[in-house]
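Can you give me the bound-state structure? Components:
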Amino acid sequence: MSQFRSILRAKLRIARHQVASVRHESKLKIGVITVSALGLWVGAYVFFAEGFRWISNFDRTLGAEYGFADILMVRLLGLFALSVFLLLIFSNVLVSFSTLYRSHEVAYLLQAPISFRQFFHARYIECLVFSSWALAFLGSPLLLAYGLHTGASPLFYVALLVFYLPFIIVPAALGSLITLFLTRIFPRLKTRTMFLLGAVAVTLLFLYVRSVLARTEIRDDALLPAFFLDATARVQSPFLPSHWAAQGVLALAKANVARGSYYFLLLLANAMMLLWLAGEVAQRVFYPGWSALHGQDRQRIKPEGRGVLGQLDTALRFVCNPERALTIKDVKLFWRDPTQWSQFVIFFGIMAIYFANLRNTSRYYEQEFWRSWIACLNVGAVTLILATLTSRFVFPLISLEGRRFWILGLAPLSLRRLLWQKFWLSVATTSSFTVLLAVLSGLMLKLEPIYFWLTVYSVVITNFGLSGLAVGLGALYPTFTEDNPARIVSGLGGTLNLLLSVGYIALVVAAQTVILQWRVLERFTSPGVFWVALAVAVVFITCLSAFCTFAPMRMGLRNLERMEF
Amino acid sequence: MIVTEALTKRFGEKTAVDALDLRIEPGTFFCFLGPNGAGKTTTIKMLTGLLKPTAGRAVLGGIDIQRDPVAAKRLLGYVPDAPFLYDKLTGREFMRFVAGLYQMPEGEYRARCDSLLALFEVDKVADQLIEDYSHGMRQKLSFAACFLHEPRIVIVDEPWVGLDPKNIRFVKNFLKEKTRNEGLTVFMSTHTLSIAEEIADRIGIIHNGRLLHLGTIAEIKALQDRPGTLEDVFLELTQATDEAAAV
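Here's the bound-state model for the whole set.
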């Protein structure tokens, strides 16, 4: 039996055992996950179906003469494919680093008489599955909605299945190749050089994004359809694998087998070539990289009380122990793990892009109707950034205690205090960024006082709700065997947390949007009625946030108390 | 003092620990022996509150670990067989973290931390990240952290893995002195029978979840007709139980 097949067979066995072990989980837990997952899938399907229906209406208002709605749908699918493609490359860089270099199995496999090529291919399959299963879950409602809305040929559905594998192979291979090269280069660089290179890369990226945004700025006189077509033309490059996948699937939707087959074979050939290339590169580059990574000078001295982290104990004097000790530990572990803070830098990038986009000079901004929309969308944007933060950094906090849970389990500390410490740590850190973001964006947009304070209140209150969801669900669905936060987040619990967070934000934004829009459209009979309605919306948002805080925290605590370590 | 009353743990159909009754007086060095899968680690996990018993109870220093876990854990120190620690903390930072968990006053922590780090010979690497430590150094740091809050009861699970002969001797003597001079109660699970024979005041032999024998070294050895080492007696007792079970 080949070594590759042996490893794969063992992995499949492990997967089967994990699936079988679901039988031992609480039925309530299984029920909650199943119903939530199905509910979210159906919700996403309805959302996308309505979205396509809305786009179809454009033909009655704008650009009917050249089938603007059809073109826009095709362009949006192209944009979706490109976004997914880029995200998959990024997630594969992270996942392949942990799978190829940091996993505990690696040392065991490397002492076996196995070629680096075979080793790489066996680990590559794991990266592929880990990084792309969410695409199948989240992409399927979008594509199904498109197929049903446009009355696509049955070949469209076959194409979705057939194109899926080569489409995910390409970014996984590219991600692995990037990791192989980075790991070969970075351990040999001095820390100062690495930071310098990182700073140059981030600056160049920021300047590029700024230039793109400047070019695509909506000019008031420009026709909306023309703008959309111009802006989305960038995703149509014939050199992008995402373009081949999108074009192939769309061709088969119209039963154009020849064109669909051409794109499929193009994608498949490239996928196979990249897979082969990655194997060959791994054969030559993996071991020197592994060796350099594990052969670094390990004398990292961190004297007590030195540096910013050393001052934490003094800075947090006002917090009682054991909460202070836990907080200092969490903060130090976070900052000393490059995989954590490197993603935190990306979060700052998102914030920077958002700020670069904030303008209040448009002609549309003179109208109350648009100002109201912009204020509500601003709340949505800031809270979505917050949800990204809590999903990525707060959700894994409990799981990251992992095999060290015995230290906390033996300490004279109740699990309730542990869980609430994580909650307050999350609220304190995320609110310092997001409340500032809310205030600055409100000032930059010159929001009227009512919009401004509603924005700030919504962001403050969602800090509690989103932290409660992330900490509570993190305790309800912990992954104690996994040390890599990226893999913890990409599990079922992490995905559920992200989706519930988005659902919660949608309800918060919807509650205030309805009231503010009705005010603009003069649906309220008197100002008094508006204020009552606004108060009801605020009470609703507050109650919803309280529910999102306490319910998951309670469920998470009960789960931890039931668990045996 | 450690007391267990009909302490039982079942995992589905399998009974890992079956109605274990123990009474270990203060100042006793107790060794818990048994083959792999006998129920030693499950017992330790129930004693430390990491596992909930299916039946029975475990009482540490007069406090039921399930009824008042926080109070019971204040009396307890634990050294695991696999020292999973926070890799991104330094040894000294880990000690401070543990002091925080046990809510030790700053002065008390400062007074003990450096001497314990020096005692277990991790003072020279105390400002290095734990991820750079060898297995033995991690184990020694676990011991230092375990004694930081001056526990009255120490539970040690197979502590010799990774320790060099010099450190094994040091840890043996250290634990022994603590029991003799300070009234510390030590509950140690081990496979190293020669060490158990050398230092234990009392021994318990567990097999297939049931306590086979409990007594002093002399009492256990007397169970065999001919003279021999503890190893001989242990093997004979556990083998006889297996044969009886097979019949």
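A couple of observations. Strands of chain B lie at 2-11, 14-24, 29-33, 55-60, 63-64, 76-79, 153-157, 185-189, 202-207, 210-215. Residues 172 and 190 of chain B are 12 Å apart (CA to CA).
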